[in-house]
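Appendix B. One record, verbatim.
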Amino acid sequence: MDLDIALILGQDGITSGAIYALLALCILLVFTVTRILLIPLGEFSVFGALTLASIQAGTPSRIVWLLVVFFAFQLILDLYAGFRNKTPFHLRSHILWAIYIGLVVGAMYFLPLASLPMLIQVLLALAVITPLGPQIYRLFFQPLVAAKSLVLLIVSIAVHVALVGIGLLVFGPDGAQTQPFSDAVYQWGNLAVNSQTLYIIAAFFSMILVLWYFFGKTLYGKALRATAVNRVGAQLMGISPIFAGKITFAMAAFMGAFAGILIAPITTLYYDSGFIISLKGFVGAIIGGLASFPVAAAGSVAVGIIEAFSMFWASDYKEIIVFTLIIPFLLWKSLTSRHIEEDHE
């Protein structure tokens, strides 16, 4: 291996690592706030990428009807909960939901999708996928908000399996790539840097800045941070765990779909590609101890670099090498952490 090859592999590793870092941040955010290990995070990425591919092909994505189905079930559950618990039914929020979903469906079927500017296509794809986050939380996790972590994990796996089946039904078995944001190539010495790589790195740092501002400067962000630090204390201060769960799932769906849109121009994604992608983000989250955002981001970039060099030296074993990385960190965590029974939290 010479220096030129090492630079190319390093570029590929940093590009992949930035994507894994975004997913690791989503996993940490959801886990610290809700105790839910979000297994179906990768499906948000795949759905976002394949939805954008459908839009660029000028074909309305049928994933919008999943929003309609989830909204119908959400409406039924809220009506039943209001009747059973004698609580007021929030008609205004459901009307706003209905208007939003109607606008998204109308945009998908009545706009000239293929001729829209790239930015509008990306925003439309994000507008379709992001609401799936709070809807999934409402339907599958909100009724179990006080359940044990093992129960939440089992439900998360079941949701993942169901979404993979829905992905096959909606998008079919064929993979797709999206159009690159730019075809420009910049020459830095002996290294040719693709503009798509620069977009991914810029998007990563931009998302970090947005999250820093959200959690440090906004009221909702401070509420989520308080919930992550102490769920019981935050609830005693009037912060609703259900509200926190919906917000975190919305953010995870947005960031997951955004990550999928970023990676779609450089790799072919299939309906079942999400699990492996999110699993590598999970490795980064484990390196961060499921607690530290900066360490998880750095660990995810390291995962991407190790994966890139493994493809060169031992391509048949690259997945094994990447997933073996979690073993020393899990061992270190088990030796240095004091176990606390969940019933005594």
